[in-house]
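REVIEWER CHECKLIST
Item 1: Sequence provided? yes
Item 2: Single chain? yes
Item 3: Sequence as submitted:
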Amino acid sequence: MGDDVDFSELMSGEGVKPLAQRQDKVALKTPDDRTNREARREAAEHGQRKDRNFLSLNEVPAVSPYDIVEFKRDGIQHGVFKKLKQGRYLTDTKLDLHRHTAEQARQMLYQFVLDCVEHDIRCALILHGKGMHTPDDDGSGRRERKPQARIKSCVVHWLKQLEQVQAFSSAQPKDGGAGAVYVLFRKSERQKDKNRQRFINSRQSAD
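Item 4: Structure as written out by the authors:
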């Protein structure tokens, strides 16, 4: 075949058929695409929430099952702390950590403290148990003997690290004794504004 043969003549010969034009179009967005995108966003948001939880299971000082624990930050008045220890504050809510692993307790306590401050909870009760009969199974399928009062030790350690917590103390026997703690939270800015406005209104009424 010579180089001067016309390409159009070749294509017009017998047996040569033009390619059919495809009528279908590829969808740029499908339900699967949207589902996957939402799943990735939810996973990213979950990862961010998890990353903000700085509480650790490592290097937790051990306390004994029947130890009475207490803690207060500088600036907390003696009368306030005494009232807390005596169980005289109304506990608006509680967190029960019985039958949970240390990792579950870590996540639950962190979110619980954030929620309490967000909803202007002043005092709450956390039931951590004495830990006399800590189960061998930690939830991972491995059976390993755990130290006594593991959750209690973690709760005491974690609460000291959370700046939203102003003070805590072992509860009175009626509320769980050495197996629970009263927790006093920092007032939110919203609550501080309410108290400030209440004070101003009371002074104006007095005048």
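Item 5: Key structural point noted by reviewer: Confidence is low (pLDDT under 50) at residues 25-31.
Item 6: Recommendation: ____
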